[in-house]
Amino acid sequence: MAFTPRFLKHRGITVIQKLDPALPRVPRGKVGLVLAGGAVAGGAFKAGGLRALDESLVRRRVPGGSAHAFGLNEFDVFVGLSAGSVLAAVLAAGIVPDEIFRILSGTSDMYETFQPWHFMSPNLGEWMSRVPRWLSKEQELLTNWLSGATDTRAGERQRFGATLRKMVEATARLIPSGLFDTSALEQYLRRQMARAGVRDDFASLYAQTGKALYLTATDLNRGEIVVFGHDEPYGKVRISTAIAASCAIPIWYRPMLVDNPLAGMKGEPDRLDLVDGGLMRTANVRVAVEKGCDLVVCYNPFTRIRYDRAGRSLHDHGMPTIATQSMRTLIGARLDLAKEVVFLDPDVQADVVFIEPAEDDYTFFNMGALNFWAKDRAIHHGYSAVRQAIDASHDLLAELFANHGIELRTPPAPSASSTAANVDMRESRGVRSANR
């Protein structure tokens, strides 16, 4: 019987199987981990879930050889954006998920605890740098009017009223470009990398660990994705700098101003103005596939809640809840579209597993994305939620991972919810109609 690609979803776990399990792959292909954003609460939720996923992995068998212990640190490719860039970098550096769990929960004896000021360092220094530029613009506008210069838009002499309006509008240049500065986060990451003996350089990290790390940010001026990695054009940017740039949520953080390693080349500016990588993508599965991964695990902590409580509406909870659902809907819908693209694109030849919160996970939904003090609850909840989701979908996941030589831990007891009858199966000819 000919193999038919599968699209399966159950309790926050989505499986897209495109590789025929009957065809041997010798040697084994690469395994990649793709981590989406999530700010503080989402990053903590991912950290807890990564610990659960790591505990579920047992060993991997190499064709013609013996099996060896296998965990998240043994993955070949790590791709991250925004908060996911932090976790991808530390995993690629060899820091185990259990230690990451302890760092975020403040119980690590090896690494510095992540504190509020690492995440929320006020953007104070930008105020003074903006004053001279504002004064220069005001002087330019006033001088143009006094000298009788022609208004290029109107084609006539500068008018006083129009000049005054432009001078008032120019005061916006005094407003800082973000509430906080990523410099404290960047310095924190550098200290931890130095403490772990990991070089703050993509090429050196790859040479040191054999693990490929790719991080993405958004070029503010060009509206394009920027990829950092040991074999990427912008790979000479420091890892800590790339992480800080990828985490620079617009308005919350000021943009990262980074010296362009390609400066002097045609079409390349001297400086890269970078903001959050999540503006361009919810996740970057295609990056992992293009780097040769046959199996990709993608972890996204934000997706819409299905609020179907009888006689009640999210509207009743007010603006914060509506904003939360809107943000999660946008992020989740973009990834749902990406899933369909992965499934339907013949050029994507890989099996992909997506891990997300269940649609009825009200506990995590009520944790604010930027609420630093929710991280302890988020990390523990992420661990238990993902552990339950993996156990509930064990048969489905175990079959797929086995095709790549990876053995999963057997759950304590079989779960009735993991039976095929409760799995939402979507065939290639009916993906879109199955979503409706």
Short structural summary:
This protein is an alpha/beta fold.
Helix/strand layout:
Layout lengths: L5 E5 L2 E5 L12 E6 L3 H18 E5 L5 E3 L7 E5 L1 H10 L4 H9 L10 H4 L1 E2 L2 H22 L3 E2 L4 E2 L2 H10 L8 E4 L1 H14 L5 H8 L2 E8 L4 E5 L10 H8 L4 E3 L2 E4 L11 E5 L9 H6 L2 E7 L19 H26 L6 E5 L6 H4 L9 H18 L1 H9 L3 E3 L15 E3 L4 H4 L2
Helix pairs in contact: 1-3, 1-13, 2-9, 5-6, 7-9
Which tags fit this structure?
disordered C terminus; 436 residues; alpha/beta
Architecture overview:
The chain is of the alpha/beta class and 436 residues long. The longest helix is centred in the last third of the chain and has 26 residues. The C terminus is likely disordered.
Poorly predicted spans: 417-421, 425-436
Largest sheet: 11 strands, mixed
Strand content: 15-25%
What is the helix tally?
15
Oligomer designation: single chain
**Rg, Cα atoms, Å:** 24 Å
| Cα distance spanning the termini | 30 Å
* Strand segment tally: 19
Structural class determined from secondary elements: alpha/beta
* Overall outline: globular
What percent of the residues sit in helical stretches (DSSP H or I)?
25-40%
Overall pLDDT level = 88
